[in-house]
């Protein structure tokens, strides 16, 4: 049946078309009106043919490119099923290409750009043929173009314009975009045409999805203007007449409802309590025979209307310049002419509260709350979003309206054609304003806010019940005043998993909430304590640092000494001595030279750094001073041991201390042991520490060495050593094994030491406990 | 309680005349072409109707754009209802003359009142001065 396609020199390959078959899955199943019952129509095909021929005639000079375009059109393909393919293809792509298309929009007042950037749309089906003008932009094309392809207007008035006649390309547009989800919600009227295409139905789900992005909502509202057709410079053909260059901004200037939701609402506006009166899923009970003129959507972009106004079919081709802006007047005129010319015989009275454009069908069925219908005219005007009128009230309103409407019925058509200024506000705009006004009336407590209203209707109800004895229930509808849910619109900033921070849509309604500021109030005492602790620590570290600097100087002395010339060596030596003294001075007791300040020692050793410092320091001290330092360590070891439990940093001291010990005199050694033992219970604490044990062993081993090696050892001169060793052994025996820390190493001669002082039994016990054996070395 | 003018019959807004009363007391009648959330109005083929006593006169004014804050009330005129026959339409000149006379008379009475009060040592501030305080 599409023979002309085959004969066209610019036929698209079937393969390409078949390639689109796969995308059938992506067809919007909800789009019954495009793909469902009303979609395919034999008449439509004939219309298509007719138009095609017309185009062919017109575009003879173009070499049939127009036809080629036709060929490309969604009509292409042998069977009607493939017709459906472009829309879904485009649609699916349209969703994805949204950003792209918008970018193009903004860029693309220049047709050249558009042609360059034209994505591979369904229009690329033609091999070797530059895509027909409207093709690449098909899927971006808004739904604005009324898709009336009916050439012989039956019953159309001879208006000043022929808006009903569109270029076939534009018609193609519409078909292709039949299912675009981006399509405006209210644009279903576009599809009211003889083709039988119904409006695009968008599921509520989709809508909410769409409403998610403000961008989408704008597009939905406004639609996307036409993309300019590519200018085929090589052909010298200018297709700009097909569609005007797109506007980079909203085509409708100055109208309030540019957004689907008011500015500043959170992205997901819970509009649950507001019913959208506009039809979401619309079925067109279209009677094909009627050949309705296309009803205009409530909002048509001036571009669209301009297209209609300047349709090439009603003008010579290639009009010079087509301004993108259609004046309100022109739009109104067009609307009026459309409306006025509407043939009677459609359902309902011609004057319908259907808005600026005629709708032969109505939106969603009136709410159940409404009273019985009069005249079989549903009243879509009563919006459930606006107010919760008492049903009686509503009924009265509708009655009033209808009576007025009925009276006017005969004259309206006439009047409308005379008043060119009517319909300057689209229905949508009116609804929007009314909605705003009504929203202020919403109340969470109607009895509080509107006491008299509630009471009045209550009384009326009672009266009715009394009068009718409650038989006819339907009339005694109770007013269940739905209270506007006190929704909590707390804005929680969106946060993507794994991202830093939160994505904020800052608006009037939600103040920015990007940072979670949590007040942690600490009590003063706590704070003081914390501060103190920190201060102390800082102090200690500071001291340690200073000592370190000295130490480093001392350490580097030798190197420097080598480097300095002879004369200065003396001075350097002096310096060195001073440094060393200073080091010691910082450790020692204020008054006593031979004693290390316990306080200082503790302080410094309480920090790991300090321990390390001491361990490095000791080798540089003169022996006597080193001995006193070791004494000091031993003395304070019990206290230090506790702190050292975790990281055992004391163990660093082992080496230098060992060195020191080995150079101690017997008396000093005894003293050391004594210091280590200290007061009662001290040793046990020491034993818990690795270093402590090691130190003890060192001492003992040294003592043993002294005894065994040096016959003149003075160790046994007094009983101190013996006693001390006794007490040590006692302690060692008594201490529970768990709290005895294993030493770093066990000197081999411990056994012999112990064997001197303890009996066999105890020796064995000791042996076991300490795991020393005669063989251990 | 309803935005009836806008919601219901604005469908018929083609030939529905609206009447708006402004804060300064003027009455405008015309075709309401546009309205927004602030009640800014666009009136087409507006006519200012001046009432003096039982007489009224219509002064055609063309297109009016009224700022919303000045609107006191707005209503639809039911063209089908029989007009009040009590009121008598007169020419513009006449009604303006009438109005002028009315204003004059009012001013005179006001002046007399003020003088009388002044004589008695009282002064009532005029409404238009109140804002200054």
From TrEMBL, chain A:
Disordered: annotated span: 74-95, 115-165, 223-258
UniProt KW keywords: Cytoplasm, Nucleus, Phosphoprotein, RNA-binding
Location(s) in or outside the cell: Cytoplasm, P-body; Nucleus speckle; Nucleus, PML body
GO CC terms in record: nuclear speck; P-body; PML body
Biased composition (Basic residues): 138-151
GO biological process, one term: deadenylation-dependent decapping of nuclear-transcribed mRNA
Keyword Nucleus found: yes
Residues annotated as domain mRNA decay factor PAT1: 496-640
GO molecular function, one term: RNA binding
Family indicated by similarity: Belongs to the PAT1 family.
Name of the protein this chain belongs to: Protein PAT1 homolog 1
Native source organism of the sequence: Oncorhynchus tshawytscha (Chinook salmon)
Primary gene name: PATL1
TrEMBL record, chain B:
Keyword field: Cytoplasm, mRNA processing, mRNA splicing, Phosphoprotein, Ribonucleoprotein, RNA-binding
GO terms of molecular function: mRNA binding
Occurrences of domain Sm (ranges): 5-80
SMART domains registered for this protein in UniProt: Sm (SM00651)
Key word Phosphoprotein present: yes
GO BP term, example: RNA splicing
A single GO cellular-component term on record: ribonucleoprotein complex
Compartments (UniProt record): Cytoplasm; Cytoplasm, P-body
Pfam families: LSM
Function field: Probably involved with other LSm subunits in the general process of degradation of mRNAs. Plays a role in the degradation of histone mRNAs, the only eukaryotic mRNAs that are not polyadenylated. Probably also part of an LSm subunits-containing complex involved in the general process of mRNA degradation.
Subunit structure: Interacts with SLBP; interaction with SLBP occurs when histone mRNA is being rapidly degraded during the S phase. LSm subunits form a heteromer with a donut shape.
Protein family (similarity comment): Belongs to the snRNP Sm proteins family.
PANTHER family per UniProt: LSM1, U6 SNRNA-ASSOCIATED SM-LIKE PROTEIN LSM1
Protein name: U6 snRNA-associated Sm-like protein LSm1
Taxonomic classification: Eukaryota, Metazoa, Chordata, Craniata, Vertebrata
Gene this chain is encoded by: LSM1
């Amino acid at each position: 049946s599409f023979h002309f396609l085959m004969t066209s020199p610019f036929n698209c390959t079937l393969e390409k078309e078949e390639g689109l078959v796969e995308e059938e899955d992506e067809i919007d199943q909800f789009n019954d009106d495009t793909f469902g019952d009303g979609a395919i129509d034999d008449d439509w095909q004939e219309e298509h043919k007719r138009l095609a021929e017309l185009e062919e005639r017109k575009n003879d000079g173009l070499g049939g490119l127009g036809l080629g375009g036709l060929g490309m059109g969604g009509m292409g393909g042998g069977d009607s099923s493939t017709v459906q393919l472009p829309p879904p293809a485009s649609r699916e792509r349209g969703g994805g290409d949204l950003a792209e298309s918008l970018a193009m929009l903004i860029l693309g007042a220049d047709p050249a750009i558009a042609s360059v950037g034209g994505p591979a749309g369904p229009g690329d089906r033609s091999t070797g043929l530059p895509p027909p003008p409207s093709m690449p932009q098909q899927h971006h094309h808004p739904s604005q173009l009324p898709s009336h392809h009916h050439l012989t207007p039956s019953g159309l008035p001879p208006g000043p314009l022929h808006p009903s006649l569109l270029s076939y390309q534009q018609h193609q547009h519409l078909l292709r975009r039949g299912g675009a989800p981006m399509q405006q919600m209210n644009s279903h009227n576009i599809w009211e045409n003889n083709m039988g295409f119904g409006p695009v139905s968008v599921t509520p789900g989709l809508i909410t999805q769409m409403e998610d992005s403000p961008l989408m909502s704008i597009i939905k509202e406004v639609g996307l203007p036409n993309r300019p057709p590519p200018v085929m410079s090589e052909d010298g053909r200018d297709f700009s007449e097909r569609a005007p260059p797109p506007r980079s901004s909203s085509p409708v200037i100055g109208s309030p409802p540019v957004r689907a939701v008011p500015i500043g609402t959170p992205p997901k506006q819970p509009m649950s309590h507001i019913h959208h009166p506009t039809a979401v899923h619309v079925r067109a009970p279209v009677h094909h025979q009627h050949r309705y003129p296309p009803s205009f959507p409530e909002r048509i972009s001036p571009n669209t209307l301009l297209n209609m106004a300047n349709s090439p079919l009603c003008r010579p081709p290639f009009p010079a310049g087509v301004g993108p802006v259609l004046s309100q007047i022109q739009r109104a005129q067009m609307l009026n002419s459309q409306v006025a010319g509407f043939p009677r015989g459609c359902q309902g009275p011609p004057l319908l509260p259907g808005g600026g454009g005629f709708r032969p069908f109505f939106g969603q069925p009136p709410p159940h709350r409404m009273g019985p219908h009069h005249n079989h005219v549903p009243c879509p005007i009563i919006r459930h979003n606006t107010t919760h009128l008492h049903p009686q009230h509503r009924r009265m309103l509708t009655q009033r309206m209808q009576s007025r409407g009925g009276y006017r019925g005969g004259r309206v058509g006439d009047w409308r054609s005379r008043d060119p200024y009517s319909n300057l506000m689209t229905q949508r705009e009116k609804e929007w304003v009314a909605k705003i006004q009504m929203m202020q009336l919403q109340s969470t407590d109607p009895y509080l806010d509107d006491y008299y209203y509630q009471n009045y209707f209550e009384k009326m109800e009672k009266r009715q019940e009394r009068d009718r004895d409650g038989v006819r229930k339907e009339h005694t509808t109770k007013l269940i005043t739905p209270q506007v849910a006190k929704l909590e619109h707390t804005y929680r900033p969106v946060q993507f998993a794994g991202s830093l921070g939160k994505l904020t849509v800052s608006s009037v309604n939600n103040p920015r909430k990007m940072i979670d500021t949590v007040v942690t109030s600490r009590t003063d005492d706590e704070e003081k304590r914390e501060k103190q602790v920190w201060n102390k620590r800082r102090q200690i570290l500071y001291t340690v640092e200073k000592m370190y600097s000295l130490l480093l100087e001392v350490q580097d002395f030798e190197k420097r000494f080598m480097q300095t010339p002879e004369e200065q060596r003396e001075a350097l030596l002096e310096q060195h001595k001073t440094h060393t003294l200073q080091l010691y001075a910082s450790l020692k007791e204020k008054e006593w030279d031979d004693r290390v300040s316990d306080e200082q020692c503790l302080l410094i050793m309480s920090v790991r750094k300090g321990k390390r410092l001491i361990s490095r320091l000791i080798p540089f001290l003169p022996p006597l001073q080193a001995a006193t330092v070791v004494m000091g360590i031993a003395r304070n070891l019990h206290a230090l041991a506790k702190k050292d439990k975790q990281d055992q940093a004391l163990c660093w001291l082992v080496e230098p201390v060992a060195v020191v010990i080995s150079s101690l005199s017997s008396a000093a050694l005894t003293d050391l042991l004594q210091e280590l033992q200290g007061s009662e219970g001290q040793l046990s604490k020491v034993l818990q520490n690795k270093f402590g044990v090691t130190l003890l062993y060192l001492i003992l081993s040294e003592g043993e060495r002294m005894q065994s090696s040096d016959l003149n050892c003075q160790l046994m001169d007094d009983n101190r050593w013996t006693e001390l060793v006794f007490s040590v052994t006692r302690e060692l025996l008594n201490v529970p094994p768990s709290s005895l820390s294993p030493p770093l190493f066990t000197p081999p001669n411990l056994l012999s030491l112990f064997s001197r002082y303890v009996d066999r039994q105890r020796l064995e016990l000791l042996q076991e406990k300490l795991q020393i054996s005669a063989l251990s070395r | 309680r309803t935005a009836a003018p806008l919601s219901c019959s604005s469908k018929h807004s083609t030939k529905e005349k609206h009447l708006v009363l402004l804060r300064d007391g003027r009455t405008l009648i015309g075709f309401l072409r546009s309205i927004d959330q602030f009640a800014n109005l666009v009136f087409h083929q507006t006519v200012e109707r001046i009432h003096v006593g039982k007489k009224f006169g219509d002064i055609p004014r063309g297109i009016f754009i009224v700022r919303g804050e000045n609107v006191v009330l707005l209503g639809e005129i039911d063209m089908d209802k029989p007009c009040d026959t009590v009121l008598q339409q007169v020419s513009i000149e006449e009604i303006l003359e009438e109005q002028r006379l009315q204003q004059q008379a009012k001013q005179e009475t006001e002046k007399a009142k003020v003088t009388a009060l002044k004589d008695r040592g009282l002064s009532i501030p005029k409404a238009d001065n109140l804002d200054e305080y």
